């Protein structure tokens, strides 16, 4: 760990972030970071609770003179998205994140940084540990599994928190104050097919799509970024008719909440079409690169001829392949509808996140988001129809609600006034297309006044994730002033 990170301002926050980033904390496997947080709370002498699903709550009394202020819930999630470049040798289950300073940015070496939501967690830890920061009574809520199901927020029981105000520290533009967010639902299509023997007079190829930027499937979905799964399907679409192409295997994408950056397919083609295949594929690749050159200038598509020993023995039958590639083409990816009520807000979208084909089975995993429940189901049913028409079983799971904006929020007025005083400009009060936990927490605590803000973080959910040092300092000063100006109890 570079000492350079620990010396950044504000030191107390960056030191906590450095400590946190030494603890592996993938979604669904948070045992170590839960233990880390429980030990932290107990070691500083504060009441520390681990609930039945693994959320950690640490309570700190008000500082002298602040006892009559409303109790504040400070909330961030413990898990992080684990993504790395293919050429990065890194074991997320055993290693801490390797960070470095690059100008105004803190980055990680070939992996996600964990600033989402580690900066928020670190800020809360620094406040809990402090002896010189004025604040009202605090209930620090550290949730689990935000990135792959929000099961921590869903499993939180009503009555565990007494706070009247919740500050969620999980947004990624420091000039924004969020008062609403999208809900989401996981859509999974599965099918089985009977493999057939690969024809003897065949040539094998490994096709690799890589070099895409990827990103957050909510916050970045409007940017027109390339989706490796859709690009791969475009390459394979007319392959059988033109070259006798048959699919042996596809592995594309990873997590539902990350726009897929890479996809690898193994295919066979009829030997007679070998030269034509390379020529035609390069023409398609050039078209795709031209379309994406502004947003994904580093896109690469590599065609490697397989040795005889690596040749696939089994492939997808032509009819199954016909329906699969057409269903993939039909399935919507990207922005589905912009909000008619909020300028520049994506209302509904879908991310075709992960595709696995091989061994007689195929699985396609999507994450559908919308700030309107009915349009969320509209997009999901469109995907369901596309995949059911090819014979897939389609499952909806992990649904969570959006967070309806409350423009009359009392704490919103406080934040807007402080932001304007500190920065000389008004903040952007927005709803976002990410899935914040506020919507779910609001079902357990419907009377709690909620707001979300955070420092500038770019490239979340991808190995180019980075946090602005200047912005983290701005965020820290903003947070401290908010705590110093919490309204009094009624």
From TrEMBL:
Species assigned in the record: Myroides indicus
The protein's name in its UniProt record: Cytosol non-specific dipeptidase
Keywords: Cobalt, Hydrolase, Metal-binding, Metalloprotease, Protease, Zinc
Boundaries of every Peptidase M20 dimerisation domain copy: 208-292
NCBIfam families assigned to the protein according to its UniProt record, in alphabetical order: aa-his-dipept
SUPFAM superfamilies, per database record: Zn-dependent exopeptidases
The keyword rRNA-binding is annotated on this UniProt entry: no
GO molecular function, a single term: metallodipeptidase activity
Similarity comment text for this entry: Belongs to the peptidase M20C family.
Record keyword Protein biosynthesis present: no
InterPro entries: Peptidase_M20 (IPR002933), Peptidase_M20_dimer (IPR011650), Peptidase_M20C (IPR001160)
